[in-house]
């Protein structure tokens, strides 16, 4: 089954990111969360890419709206 692909990392949202998501229109929020979920299982630089040594970026485009979340690895964990 394709839904049982290995999850490559865990995503935890900081409070400001949660608040931002809560303020989005429902359709946009659902697409952002879907793209983040999808990027946990696939390698798609259009959705998740490395910006520099320590910073990554989740990207979502919905019609004319671009949403970008910066992501950082928790170096205390193995992944």
Short descriptors:
single chain; alpha+beta; globular
Topology of this structure?
Elements lengths: L14 H9 L2 H14 L8 E3 L5 E7 L2 E7 L8
Antiparallel strand pairs: 1-2, 2-3
Task: Describe the protein's architecture and organization.
- The protein is an alpha+beta fold.
- It has one domain.
- The protein has a 3-stranded antiparallel beta sheet with strand order 1-2-3, with helices on one face.
- A hairpin with a 2-residue loop joins strand 2 and strand 3.
- The protein is globular and about 35 Å long.
Report strand order across the widest sheet. Answer: 1-2-3
Mean pLDDT: 87
Q: Structural class, please? A: alpha+beta
Please give the domain count. 1
**What is the share of helical residues?**
25-40%
Q: What is the first-to-last residue Cα distance?
A: 24 Å
Beta fraction: 15-25%
- Silhouette: globular
Largest sheet: 3 strands, antiparallel
User: Helix count, per DSSP?
Assistant: 2
**Poorly predicted ranges (pLDDT <50, ≥5 residues)?**
none
The Cα radius of gyration reads 13 Å
SSE order, one letter for each helix or strand: HHEEE
Number of strands: 3
């Amino acid at each position: 089954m394709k839904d049982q692909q290995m999850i490559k990392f865990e995503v935890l949202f900081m409070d400001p990111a949660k608040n931002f998501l809560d303020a989005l229109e429902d359709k946009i929020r659902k697409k952002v969360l879907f793209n983040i979920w999808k990027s946990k299982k696939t390698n798609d630089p259009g959705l998740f890419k490395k910006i520099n040594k320590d910073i990554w970026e989740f990207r979502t485009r919905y019609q004319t709206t671009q949403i970008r979340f910066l992501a950082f690895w928790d170096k205390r964990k193995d992944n």
